[in-house]
Design a protein that fits this description.
The protein is of the alpha+beta class. The protein folds into 3 domains: 143 residues, no CATH class; 58 residues, Helix Hairpins, CATH 1.10.287; 147 residues, 2-Layer Sandwich (Heat Shock Protein 90). The chain contains 7 helices and 7 strands; from the N terminus they run ααααβαββαββαββ. The strands form 2 sheets. The protein has a 5-stranded mixed sheet, with helices on one face. β4 and β5 form a beta hairpin. α1 runs antiparallel to α2. It is elongated. The two termini are 45 Å apart. The N terminus is likely disordered.
Amino acid sequence: MSSLISFLKRTWHGLVGTSSRDNPGLFHSARLKLTGFYLAIIIVFSLCLTLSIRELAEREIIRAGGLERGAVHSLLFNYYSVPPQPDSTFDRFQNAQNNNIRDRLNVDVLLVNLFALVGGGILSYWYAGRTLRPIEEAHEAQARFAADASHELRTPLASLKVENEVFLRQKSFKPEEARELINSNLEEVDRLEHLATNLLSLTQVGQAPLKLTRLSMSRVVETAVQLAEKQANKRQVKFKTNISDMEVIGNSDGLVQLSGLIIDNAIKYGPVSGTIHIDGVVDNGKYHLSIRDEGEGINKADLPHIFEKLYRGDKARSAATPGYGLGLSLAQELAKANKATIAVRNYPEGGAQFVLSLGLAKS
């Protein structure tokens, strides 16, 4: 087992830094190496088992043959007074029979190990692929995340650079123009700070378990709504809440942040002067918090990827909707940290609906 773990570590370290999409043969080569490792274990085990069984079978045959030979010699001597003869016809026949049995055992051992080689090779190749698949998916996600993060970082930096270069080429400028440039630069800096904060939050969530306690969901939602009111007022968005005041098990700060992230998403993608519906009900021993907007909903092609880091659908990438695609990824990580689940669907009457399911506090 330690050898297998060491092999997997060496394989993983060899994969880091290179994308499987850039080098399609990388994981195939690793799969072949792991297949050889598995197959070697199977062959060694098969050889040890079959040779041990063959040795035991041969010993049993020799022992049984010796008993049979002694019984025949005793019978001939007792009834016919024939003394034992080491090279009698019976002994030669028995020795030939033993040699024939040994040959058959050798052939059987060979066939069994050939079968183990072929069957074990197929099984090893399949299992090696299954073993490496999570590593490959994680590596591809890491490479995709790094590429997307680099792209998101380059965009505001490029904007800052262009604006400042154009401004510096002017021979003269008015104070109002300088103030406008500084304000624009501050907006880009705020975007970079927001991105860095979310990236840091994503790395911190899950490193240490959150302290889960009994808490009231009505207070959690009330706090999250209060924190989102400033942004909601900018878009003239109203809240309509219908919360069952039940106690759940969770982390207060984590659930406030989680609820706020979903509310923030609803404000961004819901219509101006729209309404965000927040409902909390108990069903099947779980508390279900529903947050729904009245927007256009989520493209069906985007639904499976909505919680991926830095993923934004085509509509969401418009300049009118700021963001980096990290909020929902962070929301999912916070849900896991609170031992909850989060799901999304398009509401039949329009808009996107997020449902957070939490465990109820035992009375």
